Amino acid sequence: MKILIVNAGSSSLKYQLVDMQDESVLAKGLVERIGIEGSKLTQKYPGREDKYVIEEYMPTHVEACSNMLKALTDQEFGVVEHMDEIGAVGHCVLHGGEKFTESVVIDEAVMDAIRENIPLGPLHNPANLMGIEACQKVMPGTPMVAVFDTAFHQTMPPKAYLYGVPYKYYENLHVRRYGFHGTSHRYVSKRAAEFLGKKAEDLRIITCHLGNGSSMCAVDHGKCVDTSMGITPLEGVVMGTRSGSMDPAVLQFIMNNAKDANGNPEIKDIDDMLNVLNKKSGLLGISGISSDMRDIDGAADSGNERAKIARDMLIYGIRKYIGSYAAAMGGVDAIVFTAGIGENGIELREAVMQGFEYMGAKLDPEKNKVKGEERDVSAADSKVKVLVIPTNEEIVIARDTLELVTK
Ligand code: ADP
Question: Is 2-148's fold the same as 198-388's?
Fold first, then answer.
């Protein structure tokens, strides 16, 4: 069966068509600027240089999905002859709240539940819904599956997911830690166990997903028991533009005291404050240079002090989570690095793993010279395995979709 994977954003739509016979990717595409002048679809093919581009105004996700099908079935640049060859669609959905502990076939009740979770994922869930509705419109009768970014973390116990605020806010408003990047943490923890020739159920694994957004996860015998992101992806280590964890009183202090050149409050309201924490903080906010780790590395290496501090803050944050998750699980068998920074950041991995010999983890600097490749980078005498595992959220979505529609 061929499965289409769709990740819809508010003005974009990413897709991949996977042939499940050998799990090969037939085509990958991106539709940008949906509803904005200059809409564009670009379709690429793994291992090929050529690409197929459609440039025409796409007012909504429906036109984006129509063009996606047009590109996939195009006589010259398509990869299937007819739309019917696409057996099912797997959709990425950000927030499943407490309702979804695993992937599900989409029906009206599931759509309603995704809608109910909009207050928890106000930017992503509406976009995900638009993507699902558009696909349903242009591919009527094709089964669709929702794969939630929060689902893997639903096994956390209350002591890990509750915040220390009055319990009524959890009962009435569902205020709690949900965690994100669940599909990635699930994939790399399972893959790590396979790589080691063991079962995830027999291991304690700490997974470090370090990209533009970064999150850490403690996977105890196959189950997530803690993760660093919270009710939103803002919590945890410092990220590209997100602050990570802090004393919440910082918000009030900045709002009360930060003034612009005319002496007026710099931050208008709490939404404005959250915008600063989400978009102007983290590596970008500290360094004043960039949110991209490669730029931070470049600047830090040429002596920029703030870039050095930004990098050190990320490294320090990751180390603190590794220490605390090892303590939470009563030990650790494997530490896994994934996503852009985790897979490619040779120096960062080395810095993160410095001095962990006391808990049996030691990196081999030579083996660690690897980018974007599955590898055991631990020293021969390291009791804890340190692994680089490139993430593959798409394959999880494709596999879940196949399993659910062929049940
Ligand atoms: P996203 O969270 O958007 O999926 P990625 O997983 O692609 O992001 O990660 C993006 C981050 O990975 C950026 O900070 C980028 O600088 C970093 N990155 C990519 N390649 C390298 C590299 N060779 N060395 C260090 N960091 C890298």
Answer: yes
189 neighbors 207 (Cβ within 8 angstroms): yes
- Whether pTM > 0.85 for this model: the answer is yes
Domain ranges of the chain: 2-148, 198-388
340 lines ligand 1 (CB under 6 A): yes
Closest ligand 1 atom to residue 297 Cα is: 25
Distance 288 CA to ligand 1 centre (A): 18
Sorted by sequence, the CB contacts under 8 Å of residue 162 that are 6+ apart come out as 170, 176, 177
Tell me: pLDDT of 6 over 90: yes
**Ligand 1, atom 21: nearest CA belongs to which residue?**
344
* Beta carbon of 344 within 6 Å of any ligand 1 atom: yes
What is the tally of helices (H) and strands (E) in the chain? Answer: 14, 14
Domain range 198-388, CATH class:
alpha beta
Ligand 1 centroid, distance to 352 Cα (angstroms): 16
Taking only the tens place, the pLDDT of each residue in 47-95 is 999 999 999 999 999 999 999 999 999 999 999 999 999 999 999 999 9
Fold classification of 2-148 (topology level): Nucleotidyltransferase; domain 5 (3.30.420)
Q: What is the distance in A from the centroid of ligand 1 to the CA of 85?
A: 35
Of all protein residues, the one whose alpha carbon is nearest to atom 16 of ligand 1 is 293
Mean of the per-residue pLDDT values of the chain: 97
Helix axes 61-73, 124-138, angle to 10 degrees: 50
